[in-house]
Design brief:
Blueprint: E1 3-7, H1 12-23, E2 27-32, H2 34-38, H3 40-43, E3 55-58, H4 64-74, E4 78-81, H5 88-93, H6 95-116, E5 121-127, H7 150-169, E6 172-178, E7 181-182, H8 191-203, E8 210-212, E9 218-219, E10 222-223, H9 224-236, E11 243-245, E12 251-252, H10 253-262, E13 272-274, H11 292-297, H12 306-326
Parallel strand pairs: 1-2, 1-4, 2-3, 4-5, 5-6, 6-11, 7-10, 8-13
Antiparallel strand pairs: 9-12
Length: 327
C-alpha cells in the first residue's frame, strides 16, 4: 500500500485529494497546524467523511524541526505540498508571513525529503498567479512569470526551489501550475464563494447585497475535484515535469455573478455593488491557461463546465442558508 503525505489536507484541495487517494487504496497522512487540534470540529470539517480513515500529524511549515520529524515518521511514497497562505489579498496585508510560510515552508519540506526520503515523489502546488501580468495569452509552461502580488512572488520562489531540487539532486519533483479552481468547499474569503454564499443568503432574506471589487477581472475557473486528479497523474508519470492545469476558457467576475444569480432566477445587477476597498493594489487582467501538455502527456482534461461549477456551489450554499434561516 502506497503512503501519501498531504500538507494542507484540511483545505479545499487537500480534502478532495485525500478522498481520491483513499479510493485508490493509499494510506493517507495529513499535516495540520497545531491550532487545528484545538478546534477540530471547525478546522477539519472538510474531512468529516473520511476522518477515521486518515492519520493527521501536527506540524508547522515555519519550523524545520517539526517538518523533519513529520517526514521521518511517514517516509511517504508521494508528498503533495498544498499548504500555503493562499489568499491573495492577505498577502498584501501581511507579506512577511506569506513569504515565511510559502517559501521557507517549501524549502523545509524539500530539504527534509532529500535527507530522509529522497525517493519520494513530490508535488508542489503552483498557481496561475505566478504569471500575473502575462505577456502572452493563453499561458503555457513556457510563459515567463510576472507575479503581481506577494503571494504570486512566493509561489514563483517555491516553483524555482522545486525545480532546483529536481535538477540538483535528481528528486522526482513536479509542479502543477493550477489556474483558479473552485468548489463548494472553497473558503468564504474567496470571491467565488463570496458570490455563491451571497446569492443563497439573499434568496433566504439573510442579506441584501453582494459587495465586490473588480468585476472585469478575468479568470480561468475550473472544479477542484477535477484538478486534484491531475496532481496524482503528475506523480504517476515516467518523468518529473511541470504542467499547466486549466480549462482553456475565461470568464469575468461579472460572468460568475450572473450565472450564480441566474440559477435562482434573480438579476445579478440588482444585487451587486462595487466597493473600491476590494480592489487589489496591483491586480492582474487576463489569466487563461493552455492545458495541451497535460492533455497529451497525462491524458487529463477538465470534466466540469463553468456553469455546472457555479450552479454546484450555489446549490450547496442554498442548503446552508436554509439551515441558517430556519434557526
Amino acid at each position: 500500500m502506497k503512503k501519501a503525505l498531504i500538507t494542507g489536507i484540511t483545505g479545499q484541495d487537500g480534502s478532495y485529494l485525500a478522498e481520491y487517494l483513499l479510493s485508490k487504496n493509499y494510506k493517507v497522512f495529513g499535516m495540520i497546524r497545531r491550532v487545528a487540534t484545538e478546534n477540530p470540529f471547525h478546522r477539519t470539517s472538510r474531512l468529516n467523511g473520511i476522518i477515521d480513515r486518515i492519520e493527521l500529524y501536527p506540524a508547522s511549515l515555519e519550523n524545520y524541526g517539526s517538518i523533519f520529524k513529520l517526514v521521518d515518521q511517514v517516509r511517504p511514497d508521494e508528498c503533495y505540498h498544498l499548504a500555503a497562505q493562499s489568499f491573495v489579498a492577505e498577502s498584501f496585508e501581511d507579506p512577511f508571513s506569506t513569504m515565511d510560510i510559502n517559501v521557507n515552508g517549501t524549502l523545509h519540506l524539500l530539504s527534509a525529503l532529500r535527507q530522509l526520503s529522497p525517493k519520494s515523489r513530490f508535488y508542489f502546488a503552483g498557481t496561475s498567479e505566478m504569471f500575473g501580468q502575462a505577456k502572452e495569452s493563453p499561458q503555457t509552461e513556457e510563459t515567463p512569470f510576472h507575479p503581481r502580488s506577494p503571494y504570486g512572488v512566493s509561489k514563483v520562489a517555491g516553483f524555482d526551489l522545486t525545480r532546483n531540487y529536481r535538477e540538483a539532486y535528481g528528486m522526482f519533483n513536479c509542479s502543477g501550475i493550477l489556474f483558479n479552481h473552485e468548489s463548494p468547499r472553497r473558503g468564504q474569503e474567496f470571491v467565488t464563494r463570496k458570490i455563491t454564499a451571497g446569492v443563497a443568503r439573499i434568496k433566504y432574506g439573510l442579506q441584501d447585497k453582494v459587495r465586490l471589487g473588480n468585476l472585469g477581472a478575468q479568470r480561468d475557473w475550473g472544479f477542484a475535484g477535477d484538478y486534484i486528479k491531475a496532481m496524482w497523474q503528475m506523480l504517476q508519470n515516467d518523468t518529473p515535469e511541470d504542467f499547466v492545469i486549466a480549462t482553456g476558457a475565461t470568464h469575468t467576475v461579472a460572468d460568475f455573478a450572473q450565472v450564480a444569480f441566474d440559477s435562482i432566477g434573480y438579476d445579478w445587477e440588482d444585487y451587486v455593488e462595487i466597493e473600491k476597498q476590494f480592489y487589489r493594489p496591483a491586480d492582474v487582467g487576463l489569466l487563461l491557461g493552455d492545458y495541451t501538455k497535460a492533455q497529451k502527456k497525462l491524458g487529463w482534461e477538465p470534466e466540469t463546465t463553468f456553469e455546472e461549477l457555479v450552479t454546484m456551489m450555489v446549490e450547496e450554499d442554498l442548503k446552508q442558508a436554509a439551515k441558517e434561516a430556519s434557526q
